[in-house]
Amino acid sequence: MTAHAIHSLNLAPAQPLQTLDGRQVLSGIRKRAVSGAVALAPLGLAGDEQADLSVHGGLSKAVYAYPLEHYAFWQTVRAQAGAAAWGEALPPGSLGENLTLTGLLESQVWIGDLLRFGDAELIVSEPRQPCFKFNAVMGFSKAAKLMSESGWCGFYLAVKTAGTLQAGERFELLPGPREVSVAELFRAKMRR
């Protein structure tokens, strides 16, 4: 059985972000790791903000999770694109995720699956769709396209039971109805 855990818990206030075409937009995508327990409420984690509630946040997208296992890929493609030096570490939260997870990939998660933590529960609601803000934080114009092609999108979570979360905490994956996987739904959305 695979051990599932929160590698890093990441938060950010909404703040100005310069896009690759020079525009300034408000975004909460620049997440940074925090230590200690953080309160989890129906709309997300205490101290975290989303700037565009039409695409991020709300009850069904309260928390965004991303697998740590994909970080080496992003570190390499950023170096290939000239957006970072070879070997430059990509800190957790760099993909805009609240939870950098270990042991759980998109291909292993289905819509409606439950992630049970010590005193909190989250339900998998949908895959993340990349946008121009993702290109800006990755530092190159093809980042969103690479996420679309790889299917390494991460997934949004709705809060079933409020509580607290913290880095290092293990969790259990409990299967939901298992009708549509995150990977299948992401591919379908990207074909539109």
How would you describe this structure to a colleague?
The protein has helices at about 70-80, 130-140, 145-150, 180-190, and strands at about 5-10, 15-20, 25, 30-35, 40, 45, 65, 100, 115, 120-125, 155-160, 165, 170-175. The protein is α+β, with helices and mostly antiparallel strands and about 190 residues long. The strands form three sheets. Strands 1-8-7-11-10-9-13 form a seven-stranded mixed barrel. A three-stranded antiparallel beta sheet has the order 6-5-12, with no helix packed on it. Strand 7 (about 65), helix 1 (about 70-80) and strand 8 (about 100) form a beta-alpha-beta unit. The mean pLDDT is about 95.
Highlighted features:
7-stranded mixed barrel; 4 helices; 18% helix; 192 residues; globular; M1 Pyruvate Kinase, Domain 3; alpha+beta; 3-stranded antiparallel sheet; single chain
Structural class: alpha+beta
Overall outline = globular
The first-level CATH class is given as Mainly Beta
Radius of gyration: 16 Å
CATH superfamily: PK beta-barrel domain-like
What average pLDDT do the residues reach? 95
Give the low-confidence spans. Answer: none
Report helical residue fraction. Answer: 10-25%
Number of helices: 4
Tally of strands: 13
CATH architecture: Beta Barrel
- The count of domains is 1
In short:
The protein has 192 residues and is of the alpha+beta class. The chain has a single domain, classed as PK beta-barrel domain-like (M1 Pyruvate Kinase, Domain 3), CATH 2.40.33.20.
